[in-house]
Amino acid sequence: MKAVLSGIGAALLLLVVVLVARTAMVPAPESFPSSPSPVVFSKEQAAAMTQRLSRAIQFPTLAGQADAFASFHAFLEQAFPLAHASLSRQAFGHSLLYHWESSNDCAPILLLAHQDVVPVSSPEDWLQAPFAGAIESGYLWGRGAMDDKGSLMAILESVEALLAQGQSPACDVWLAFGHDEEVGGVQGAGKMAAWMLSEGLQFAMVLDEGGMVLPGATLGIDKPVALIGIAEKGYLSVILTAQGGAGHSSRPPEQTAIGELSRAIMMLQASPRPAFLNGATRQMLEQVAPWQPWGKRVVFANLWLFEPLVLQQLASKPDTNALIRTTMAPTMLSAGVKDNVLPATAEAVINFRLAPGENRETLMTWLEEALPATVNARIAEGFFAEPSAISPVDSSAYQQLSVLAEGLPAAPVAVPFLLIAGSDARHYEALSGNVFRFLPASFEREDVARFHGANERLALSQYPAMVAFYASVMTSAF
């Protein structure tokens, strides 16, 4: 027995030594010196830029609103005369593709943003009218301020400012502004990407919306974090259908179509897809380890041991649970025609966001095995996307982008990130091995709900910094 206890004690001691040694190997926190921005704005110039963004918000560029897009395009030509005189422009439906040539022989970059916005379901919940572009209380309010006209306008503002100062980009710059991102991007980004691929274009970097600067408290650090999306989840909607006998509601059978469908949904929610810690999420945790207090640094530096504990913590909150598994959300229900008639069928639409490593085949196989025989599943018609590839964090493109992100006014720590939503970036994977998703603005945690929600807004102090960021991107070689 003494020998056994002695062996256990030695093993525990060895484990402690390994944990401490691995933690000690975590590099010290490092901050990269930021380069001065190639553009600087006076208060008057910043105010003028804000007014132009306000005007852009006033065009309700919703899917199918052809007149709104046409008017918005005319406004862009008037607002940015130097850009439209110096850059070539092609139209793909309502989507716009610009090209700014450089005199240098280096790989081009591609900057993305989208013109379209989502509808406003409850305008009475807004403090300011959704399409008024109101400037109030230090914010610019309106649908599109965050998603994604803020980025689109900031990109064009940076081009205009550089041209006004006689500057040119380090390498060729392409700008792709889709018109249907909110409904999948097939007609806009999809067609622009296909054309560029047919032309043999390859980019050193592709940059779209996605992550942003947020408080680091969620990751256990005091400094803000710049979440640079290096991958995004897939998108798949599935229709579940349950069959039942139609008839009078006064004589209900033991099992009804609605009851069977409800039980199936509850069963799926009670048995979520497996959680795992790899790819972008694992890299995110490893990169914030240097800024952690000692206790948490031990955990993040030794994920090989503490992974189950970390997964348990991440799974406890919806926003972090989405980082570690494929998620499902019932979004639509349909059954019945009258309150006293039993429906013959009941249907539900389940929206799945596929984690990297999952695909359509594995998900449908799981559904076929998990669902009861009374419920069947089929893929809904419409937009579908597999999870994206994961862009490398050891590339010069990611390192350069990280330096620029850490030079933002909040002085954040740049970390890789899995985008749980979708973006137009997924259409451009064949054009670059470095596809990133980052919105260069700081927000609070509660602001995330404003994306597609009520009271979308952008702090006035953030906008000039966004313009300066994009100007730095264009004058940098990746």
TrEMBL record:
Every Peptidase M20 dimerisation domain range: 230-372
Keywords, sorted A to Z: Hydrolase, Metal-binding, Protease, Zinc
Coiled coil: none
Gene3D superfamilies recorded: 1.10.150.900, 3.30.70.360, Zn peptidases
PROSITE patterns given in the database record: ARGE_DAPE_CPG2_1
GO biological process: proteolysis
Domain of life assignment: Bacteria
GO molecular function: metal ion binding; peptidase activity
Signal peptide: none
Keyword presence, Protease: yes
Family: Belongs to the peptidase M20A family.
PANTHER family: N-FATTY-ACYL-AMINO ACID SYNTHASE/HYDROLASE PM20D1, N-FATTY-ACYL-AMINO ACID SYNTHASE_HYDROLASE PM20D1
This protein's name: M20/M25/M40 family metallo-hydrolase
